[in-house]
Amino acid sequence: MTQETSGLFPPTGTEAHPLEPFLPAGALLLMLGSFPPQKKRWSMDFFYPNLQNDMWRIYGLIFFGDKDHFLLPGKKAFDRERISSFLQEKGVALYDTASVVRRLQDNASDKFLEVVEPTDIGALLRSIPCCKAVVTTGQKATDVFCQQTGAPEPPVGEKSEFDFAGKRMTLYRMPSSSRAYPLKLEKKAEVYRVMFHELGMI
Known about the structure:
- The protein is α/β, with parallel strands linked by helices.
- The chain contains five helices and eight strands; from the N terminus they run E-E-H-H-E-E-E-H-E-H-E-E-H.
- The strands form two sheets. A five-stranded mixed β-sheet has the order 3-2-6-8-7. Strands 1-4-5 form a three-stranded antiparallel β-sheet, with no helix packed on it.
- The termini are far apart.
- Mean pLDDT is about 90; it is low at about 1-5.
């Protein structure tokens, strides 16, 4: 790996990942997206920061029966502190499958995201040895994960099993939380709820 592609000095026209992996000790589940949207779309300095992305509304519906649970009262922003505390308590780790990307268009669509440097997923998993499952939340994230681990790609809403470091693990392929994905928020939450139930997290 050269300095140019190490993330310290990403190639011209590319973006290095702006966040550190969120890896609580004892994490049972690792959630992997593709890459954060452009900073101009952020409502907080954390994962899934775009108000038009429904990940934290999905969590709010499942665990609190309220899609707005993780919104800051009276503000158009998610509550980073409340979200991170909740994830620490539940044992959910977060990162993305790309560490350096090139945006082919001025938007957050995976379709126009070129992965210049994929994340070392094995290193993430080794840092959270209690982890027993991974969830990918989009096609590009699923593609990168399966390429690195050899995990069979499950259909959306389903799961497969794979081996990592002598341990049998589960890969869940969940519907994208982007509003561009054609499924109602409540239906997405139902699919995610099954996963959390199977993992004993609710």
